[in-house]
Amino acid sequence: MLSESEIIFRLICSAFLGGMIGFEREMHSQPAGLRTHVILAIGSTIAMVLSINLAIRFHTVATNGDPERIAAQVVSGIGFLGAGAIFRYDSGVKGLTTAASLWTTAIIGLAIGAGDLPLGIAATGLVLFVLVGLDIFEKKFLQGSSTRIVYIKGHDRPWFIREIKDLLTRFGISIKSVSFSKDMQNNLIEIESISKILLEQDMDKMIAEFSKIEGITSFKIN
Prior knowledge:
Elements: H1 4-27, H2 34-57, H3 69-83, E1 87-89, E2 92-94, H4 96-113, H5 117-142, E3 145-155, H6 160-170, E4 174-183, E5 188-198, H7 203-211, E6 216-221
Antiparallel strand pairs: 1-2, 3-5, 3-6, 4-5
Helix pairs in contact: 1-2, 1-4, 1-5, 2-3, 2-4, 3-4, 4-5
């Protein structure tokens, strides 16, 4: 069986590695941050250590003891915790990366619990590289625009929609989908557009230009 000192050492290593990943998620204000990742890493390490010790302790009674059984339940069960970190936000979905980091942190905890410290350290380093390094790369080279929802409300008149569309085009805003609703009694029209907006867009200038369009009473970007 594993000694108490060895178990404590593995738990501390697991908590530290899980904390490194959790700290990065905490810095990005994710719903599952530092404490969640640390607790998850510790829990999965305990599950792995318990699996090993039970298999060793009862090997004479249960000759078919499998130290992978409890660990296997961690791998499948962590999916429920990861799903809690995923939620819809306007036109998209957020939390997928955090859910993946939770699942991977659990696997790292199992690796540490099994005594494979080099594997756990290497995996933690790779995860941090993906979360930090690739995030910088994406923002610099890949994410020239973001998907946002544009809300416009105003008094309808001839060429009102055309002027709005032309202004959106002038600012390089690509419309992915658009929906309209109109209050016929008060002649009010509401436009909701899912659009691609450049990250470096001058929002102050855009708002100033839209305020010049006759009839607009409300303009909002989420």
